[in-house]
Each structure stands twice: as structure tokens, then as C-alpha cells.
Automatic annotation (TrEMBL):
Pfam families: EF-hand_SWAP70_N (PF25530), PH (PF00169). InterPro entries: EF-hand_SWAP70_N (IPR057836), PH-like_dom_sf (IPR011993), PH_domain (IPR001849), PH_SWAP70 (IPR057837). It comes from Malurus elegans (Red-winged fairywren). This is Switch-associated protein 70. The keyword Membrane applies. It comes from the Eukaryota. One of its GO terms (molecular function) is DNA binding.
């Protein structure tokens, strides 16, 4: 919708600038609503075009009303030619040249519409030389004539020196003057303009007579076919007055060549989703051209691309914008360089002035220097005479001093020899002291080592004495332990003998107690408490254990192995306590 709005604005701009808006703005708005199929809004129209000076058209201009109430409501369901013709009618009378032209008013109208299509998107509208060349080439090719590039280059140079491009009316004058169509009659030029108009404005990609096979009666009828970006329309004749139908194209359509049949040649087939159309061209060349044109159109629909002439126009605009941006960047850089050069020139001028001032100061200083040099030369001459006299006196004094100096030098040499000898003696004395110090340090180190060894020997002697004393004490302690162990062993042997006697008695008592179990149990408990109080080692006489009994030299033991271990621990505890 943005591209459509721009195209509409260009035609409206011509009509807008040609009218007295205060008196004719309502007429223009009404006509626009009519041709664009936009609903009329009389209230908004009257409000915007109030007669007082405070009305919106006085303060805001015409564009806010045009955008809000007309262009934003355009849906695209209008006749572009009728719209352009209405705008042309409003502006042509005022702007069209009064001088006779080689083209008709209808051709001038078509050139005006083509201008709006090719002009730049800035106001006032102009067509740049590149687009003029493109249009003139298209018209020349349509006329079947050769393109005169050299002639146009001269025209382009003359044009670039005076302006950026041509207005619509200047373009009409250029084409109407016949400057680039010499030798062509008016009808040929008109047909060429009409062909370019159909391609660029009406999006007619190809047109011509062909035979079409009917769907119902299957008869062949000659029709005028017009190929557009999304359809093929066919008419009774090329005046386009009696339209017979449309073939709607989309990405699913395809076109195929057919073999000759039924006496018809140069056949091809157009397949759509709902219908299939059989068409016969006049010759093989036309057949191939139509197949290629239809296939190209279908491919563009599949890719979603615009028609070739619109895509080419967009690419030319983008290229011009790119070149313009590069040119502006180059101009900006040139301005920066120029400014830099001007600054450098100013700096050079400043430096030159400084050099001139420095040269003047240098000349003045050179003059003063020469004057000063002359004065100094005179003064130097006088001083030189004085110096000569002083030098003679000084030479006499120097001769006298020389003899004194020789004597002094001889004395110095003698003193130097004495100093050298004294220095050697001091070196010898120093070396002797160093040797003495070395010997003294060695003796001190030996004394320290001897003291350390003596202290170590004394330490070893004390450790040996302590070891001997500890050995004697340990020997005495072991002897005491042996005596205690022997005593404990004797006590244990006595206790074992006593226990053996008690075991024998217990066995005899066990035989008696079998008959009276309850009384024996009580007696056994009392006896167990008594034994535990005295010894804690004799176990109760109970039914024999299943574990094997210990055997002693005096017979079966009266206690288990666990009780024996407990007895041993008790002995060790008593021994430790006694120690």
C-alpha cells in the first residue's frame, strides 16, 4: 500500500499544484473520492475547507486531509487510467505547451503517466537523465529504430550543466519535438508510446492475436490476448472493448507445448487448478515467445517477485541512491580536504609571515653583530699589545719557575719512591697480621672443638653411670619380682592342693545331693558365696559341662579354662599391687 500511495501522490501533486486550492480543493477531493471508490465524507470536507482563516486547510494544509480521509481508505479496486486521466485533466490545460507537438494529447497523457512512474520520489517531481535514457530507448526499440547513443550523450551533457532533470511537461516537449524520433511518422511514434505505456503502466507483459479452443462448443475462435503479471485476459479485438474472459495465473499454473492436431498448428496448453486452455499461435516463433512469457510470469508469481519493469526500476533507483550516497561521501571528503588545505594554507601563510619577521630580526641582529665585531676587533688589538708585554714578563717568570719546578719534581720523585717503599712495608705488615689472625682463629676453633669433645665425653660418662645405676636397680627389681613370683607360686600350689581336696569332697557330696536336689541346691548356693568370698575361683558343683575338662597332675580340674584365666589375671593384679 505504501508504493500505491506514492504513485497516487505523484498524480495528485500535479493536480494539486495546478489548482487554486481555496476555490477548487473541494472539487479535487470530491473527484478523488469518486475515481478511487472511496466513500464521501461531506462533514469532514466542509469542516476542513471552512472559509475563515482558522480552518484546517489554512493552518495545516491539504495533505493531512488527503492522507486521513482519502488515501488511507484506498483499497486498490479502482481504474488507474481513469484516476490518472482525472488528474491530467485538472493540470494539463495550465501546464501543457502551446507550441505544436508531433504527438497527440492522448500520447502526451500517456507520457505524463509514464513520467509519474519513472520520476524520483521527491518534490517537485523530476525525471533524471538515466530514466530519460531508459524511456527513450524503450520508445526507440518499440518503433524499430536504432538508438542514437552519441546524440543522447550530447543532450545529457547539456542537461547536466543546467539542471538535475526534466519536469513532466519538459519531457512531453522533448518527446513531442521529435528530436529522438526523426524519420518516424506520427502514427509510429504513437504506437511506440502506447506499447511502452501498456508495459510500464498497465503491466502488459505481452499481447497479440491467437486462436482459443472453446470449453463448451470446442470450436476455435480468434481472440486478442493480454498477458499481465497475474492473469491473461482475452478480448474480441485489440480495442479491448468486448472482454470474453480471464485466465487467472498463480504459482500452480504451468504451460506446455502440444503437438499439432485437428488441423491446428503451433499449439500450447495452459493448465490451471480449475481449467485447462488450449491455444494456437500464428507461427512457431510466436508460440515460443508466448510460452516463455507465460512461464516467466508464473515463475515470478511463485517467487513473489514484482514485474520485470518494476523490479528494474527499483534496481535503477537503488543504484542511483548508492551512487548519490557515494558522491555525497566523496563531496564530504573533498570538503574536508579543502577545509584542511585552507587550514594548511593559513598555517603556511602564518609561518611565512613568521619567517619574514624572523628574517628581518636576523638582518638587524647581523648588523648589530658586525658593529659589535668591529668594536671588539679594535679592543682586541689593544688587548693584544698588552698581552704581548704581559707574555714577555710571564716567559721570564716561567723560565724561573721552570727551574724551581725541576727541583720540586725531583723532590716529588724521591718522595714517591719513599712512599712506594713505605706502602710495600705496610702491605707486608698487613699480610703478617692477617696470617697471625688466621692462626689465632684456627687455635680458637681447635679449643672450641676440644671443649665440645670434652663435654660430649663427660655426657657419655654420666649416661654410662646412669645406665649402670639403672641396670643395678632393674637387677634388684627383677630379683624381688622373682622372689615374689616364687612366693606367689608356692601360694598357688598350696591353693591348688587345697582345691583338689575340696574337689574330691565336692564329688562325694554330689553323690549324696542327687537324691535331695532342692536341699543340695540351697547348700550349694551358700557354699558358692562362701568360696567366692575367700577365693573367687572355685566354681559351684553343677551338672557337668559339655566342654572338655582340664586335667591336672592330680586328676580332673574343678574349674574351667575361663576360670583359670580369671585366676591368672587376679594373681597378676595382686603382684602389681605388691610392687
Amino acid at each position: 500500500m505504501v508504493g500505491l500511495k506514492e504513485e497516487l501522490l505523484k498524480s495528485i501533486w500535479h493536480a494539486f499544484t495546478a489548482l487554486d486550492l481555496d476555490r477548487s480543493g473541494k472539487v479535487l477531493s470530491h473527484n478523488l473520492c469518486t475515481v478511487l471508490n472511496v466513500p464521501h465524507d461531506p462533514v469532514a470536507l466542509e469542516e476542513h475547507f471552512r472559509d475563515d482563516d482558522e480552518g484546517p486547510v489554512s493552518n495545516q494544509g491539504y495533505m493531512p486531509y488527503l492522507n486521513k480521509f482519502i488515501l488511507e481508505k484506498v483499497q486498490g479496486n479502482f481504474d488507474k487510467v481513469e484516476f490518472n486521466r482525472m488528474c491530467w485533466t485538472l493540470c494539463a490545460k495550465k501546464n501543457l505547451s502551446k507550441s505544436p507537438l508531433l504527438i497527440s494529447d492522448e500520447d502526451a497523457f500517456k507520457v505524463w503517466v509514464i513520467f509519474n512512474f519513472l520520476s524520483e520520489d521527491k518534490y517537485p517531481l523530476i525525471i533524471v537523465p538515466e530514466e530519460i535514457e531508459y524511456l527513450l530507448k524503450k520508445i526507440t526499440e518499440a518503433m524499430g529504430a536504432g538508438w542514437q547513443q552519441e546524440q543522447f550523450d550530447h543532450y545529457k551533457i547539456a542537461l547536466n550543466t543546467s539542471r538535475e532533470g526534466l519536469s513532466a511537461w519538459e519531457l512531453i516537449d522533448l518527446i513531442g519535438s521529435g528530436q529522438f524520433s526523426k524519420g518516424m511518422d506520427k502514427q509510429t511514434v504513437s504506437m511506440a508510446i502506447n506499447e511502452v505505456f501498456n508495459e510500464l503502466i498497465l503491466d502488459v507483459l505481452k499481447q497479440g492475436y491467437m486462436l482459443k479452443k472453446g470449453h463448451k462448443r470446442k470450436n476455435w475462435m480468434e481472440r486478442w490476448f493480454v498477458l499481465k503479471p497475474n492473469s491473461i485476459s482475452y478480448y474480441v479485438s485489440e480495442d479491448l472493448k468486448d472482454k470474453k474472459g480471464d485466465i487467472i495465473l498463480d504459482g500452480n499454473c504451468c504451460v506446455e507445448a502440444l503437438p499439432d492436431k485437428d488441423g491446428k498448428k503451433c499449439l500450447f496448453l495452459i493448465k490451471c487448478l480449475d481449467k485447462t486452455f488450449e491455444i494456437s499461435a500464428s507461427d512457431k516463433k510466436k508460440k515460443q515467445e508466448w510460452i516463455q512469457a507465460i512461464q516467466t510470469t508464473v515463475n515470478l508469481l511463485r517467487a513473489g517477485s514484482p514485474p520485470p519493469h518494476k523490479e528494474a526500476r527499483q534496481k535503477r533507483k537503488e543504484l542511483r541512491q548508492k551512487l548519490l550516497a557515494e558522491q555525497e561521501e566523496l563531496e564530504r571528503q573533498m570538503k574536508e580536504l579543502q577545509a584542511a588545505n585552507e587550514n594548511k594554507q593559513k598555517e603556511l601563510e602564518t609561518v611565512q609571515k613568521q619567517l619574514e619577521a624572523a628574517a628581518a630580526r636576523a638582518a638587524e641582529e647581523e648588523k648589530k653583530r658586525l658593529q659589535t665585531q668591529a668594536e671588539l676587533q679594535d679592543r682586541f688589538s689593544l688587548e693584544l699589545e698588552r698581552e704581548k708585554m704581559v707574555r714577555q714578563k710571564m716567559e721570564e717568570q716561567v723560565a724561573q719557575k721552570s727551574s724551581e719546578l725541576e727541583q720540586y719534581l725531583q723532590r716529588v720523585r724521591e718522595l714517591e719512591e719513599m712512599y712506594t717503599q713505605l706502602q710495600e712495608a705496610l702491605e707486608d705488615e698487613k699480610q703478617a697480621r692477617q696470617d697471625e689472625e688466621t692462626v689465632r682463629k684456627l687455635q680458637a676453633r681447635l679449643l672450641e672443638e676440644e671443649s665440645a669433645k670434652r663435654a660430649e665425653l663427660e655426657k657419655w660418662h654420666l649416661q654410662q653411670q646412669q645406665t649402670i645405676e639403672m641396670t643395678e636397680a632393674e637387677k634388684q627389681e627383677l630379683e624381688n619380682q622373682r622372689m615374689m613370683k616364687e612366693q606367689a607360686l608356692q601360694v598357688a600350689m598350696q591353693q591348688l592342693k587345697q582345691l583338689e581336696l575340696e574337689r574330691k569332697e565336692a564329688l562325694e557330696q554330689y553323690e549324696e545331693v542327687k537324691k535331695k536336689l532342692e536341699t543340695a541346691a540351697n547348700n550349694t548356693k551358700s557354699w558358692k558365696d562362701k568360696v567366692a568370698h575367700h577365693e573367687g575361683l572355685i566354681r559351684l558343683i553343677e551338672p557337668g559341662s559339655k566342654n572338655p575338662h582340664l586335667i591336672t597332675n592330680w586328676g580332673p580340674a574343678a574349674f574351667t579354662e575361663a576360670e583359670l584365666e580369671e585366676r591368672q589375671r587376679s594373681w597378676k593384679g595382686k603382684k602389681a599391687t605388691s610392687e
